[in-house]
Write a structure and sequence with these properties.
alpha/beta, Rossmann fold, 6-stranded mixed β-sheet, 7 helices
């Protein structure tokens, strides 16, 4: 018997995707979208959040993290593995790599790409290539998104989500009617150039 794809999309990230929050939600009108974006959030710091919210994550999760992590490859690999262990059972984890704004970031992106060999449900999106082709996507810091960059990130995420949805051959029963609660975003004190804001936003698809 055919099953219906879970229409919930969970997006977790730092202030980069926080800037694109509204654009991401608008780009996915047919989905129930949760953008869980926190100021200064590292991949390591996201592990507790993912653990707590795992029951609310559907078939597709989107991760935009890494800028607030150090370029220690052993630690970064461990954090990737721990995140993917938490997300075991999520059919597709879409993970945007980093804009290579500083030394060591290319190696971190390579670690992320290598993780696809360990996790069949992981799909890495080459955000760095998008910005290289369209430098006006980011401000002078090389990270944060201009309005044009916000629109591009939203479309990149939409393309990855649609691809994941159309290539999923066995899907879970729809749980889009599940009760959802909004939790207060956690504060993060790590020093960063990011704006000191955080937000979790939910948007349900319109009917019809």
């Amino acid at each position: 018997m055919a099953q219906t794809l879970d229409r919930r999309i969970y997006v977790i990230g730092d202030s980069v995707v926080l800037g694109a929050r509204d654009a991401v939600i608008a780009a996915l009108p047919e989905w129930t979208v949760t953008v869980d974006a926190h100021q200064d959030l590292s991949l390591f710091g996201a592990l507790d959040i993912l653990t707590q919210l795992r029951p609310e994550i559907g078939d597709i999760a989107v991760v935009e993290l890494g800028y607030d992590d150090g370029a220690n490859l052993v630690a970064f690999r461990d954090h990737i593995d721990r995140a993917m262990a938490i997300l075991a059972g999520v059919r597709t984890v879409v993970w945007l790599d980093q804009r290579q704004f500083a030394p060591g970031r290319d190696a971190m992106n390579a670690e992320l790409r290598a993780a696809q060999d360990r996790y069949p449900n992981l799909r890495v999106v080459d955000w760095n290539a998008v910005v290289a082709a369209a430098p006006d996507s980011v401000y002078a810091d090389g990270i944060h998104l201009t309005p044009a960059g916000q629109a591009r990130m939203a479309q990149v995420i939409r393309a990855a989500v649609v691809s994941a949805a159309t290539t999923t051959t066995t899907t879970s029963p729809s749980r889009s009617s599940s009760k959802r609660t909004t939790r207060k975003s956690r504060g993060h004190t790590r020093r960063s150039t990011h704006r000191r804001t955080s937000h979790r936003h939910h948007r349900r698809p319109s009917s019809g």
